[in-house]
Amino acid sequence: MPTAPRITGTFLDEITHDIPAQNWGAKEWRREFELYQRIGIDTVVIIRAGYQNKCIFPSRTLGDLLPVYEDLGELFFSLADEYGLSVFFGTYDSGFHWMRGAWWREVEVNKAFIDEVVERYGHHASFKGWYLCHETSRNSANIIELFNEIGRHCKAAKDVPVLISPFPQGAKQFSGSGVMSLDESFEHWERIFSETQGAFDICAFQDGQIHYQELPRFVQSIGEMGKRHGVTIWSNLETFDRDMPIKFPPADWRYLRFKLEAAAPVAEKIITFEFPHFMSPHSSYPSAHHLFERYREFAGL
C-alpha cells in the first residue's frame, strides 16, 4: 500500500502581516518543536525576520524599530539544534523600497542585515538555509534584481541553500484583468528562472491562489521547469482557507488532502504555511486541532 504524502516542513510567521499573533513564549514553542520531531517535520522556515519596523531580534542594522523584547531568532535556532531540525532564515522586507522601484535600497538594507544574521546565528548547527521573503507572482517590482543580489549575498555570507516561495497570479487573490492564465504564469517564471541562475536553489510555489482543478497541471509544469533550470521544486501547501469570505480560517481537510496528493508526485518536499496557526493541535484556532487529527489519521501518525 503506498505511503500517504506527508508535510515535512513549516513556515514560522512571527512577524505577522495578515494573521493574528498567538502570543506564544518559550514553553509553547518548545512544545511545538517537540511535536515536529515526533511527526516528521524536519524543517522550519522563518518567513521573514524583519518587516517594516518590526524584527524578531534587536537588530543594529535596521533603524527605527519597534521595541524588541526577546530574541526569537535565538530561541528558534536553539530549539532546532536541540530537536534536530533545519532552519531556513527569512530575510528582511521593508515593505517600501522595492514597492517604489528602489530595489537597490532594498538590497543595501538586506546585505547589512544578512551579515548581521550570520554574525549572530551562523554558529548554529541548525542553520541550514536562507529564505528570500520578497514574494511575487510575476516578473515585476525588479524581482530578478532582488533575487540575484540578495540570494547571492546570502550564499556569500553563509553558503547554504536558498529558498523562494512565489505564487501564481490566480483568481483567488486577483480579479478581472489582474488574473493571469497558467500559460502567462509559466512564461513569466521561465524568464525569472533563466535570469536568476545560482541565486536560489529551491522553489516552493504557494498552492492556494488558483482554482483546485488548475493545480495538477500547474504543479506538473513547474516541476518540468525546475528540471530545465536546475531548481529543486518543493510545494508550499497552504493550510489556511482562501475560499471563505473571512481571513483566514484553517483549511477544509478535504481540499487540503486534494492539494497534498496533487503535489506529492512532483514536489521533492512538502512544506506548509503555516502549521502553528492553522494545523497545530496547540493552535489558538479550535478547527486547527481537528485539521491536525484528520491529517494524523491520513498520514498514519
Please describe the biggest sheet, giving its number of strands, its sense, and whether it closes into a barrel: 8 strands, parallel, barrel
Oligomeric state: single chain
DSSP strand tally: 11
Which outline best applies?
Answer: globular
Total number of helices: 9
Helix content: 25-40%
End-to-end C-alpha gap: 16 Å
Overview of the structural elements:
By secondary structure, the chain is an alpha/beta fold. It is built from nine helices and eleven strands. The strands form two sheets. The chain has an eight-stranded parallel beta barrel, surrounded by four helices. Strands 4-3-6 form a three-stranded mixed beta sheet. Helix 6 (215-229) links the parallel strand 9 (202-206) and strand 10 (232-238). It is globular. The two termini are 16 Å apart. The mean pLDDT is 95.
Layout of SSEs?
Blueprint: E1 9-12, H1 26-39, E2 43-46, E3 50-51, E4 54-55, H2 72-83, E5 86-90, E6 92-93, H3 103-121, E7 127-131, H4 143-157, E8 162-164, H5 182-195, E9 202-206, H6 215-229, E10 232-238, H7 253-263, E11 270-273, H8 275-278, H9 286-299
Parallel strand pairs: 1-2, 1-11, 2-5, 3-6, 5-7, 7-8, 8-9, 9-10, 10-11
Antiparallel strand pairs: 3-4
Helix pairs in contact: 1-2, 3-4, 5-6
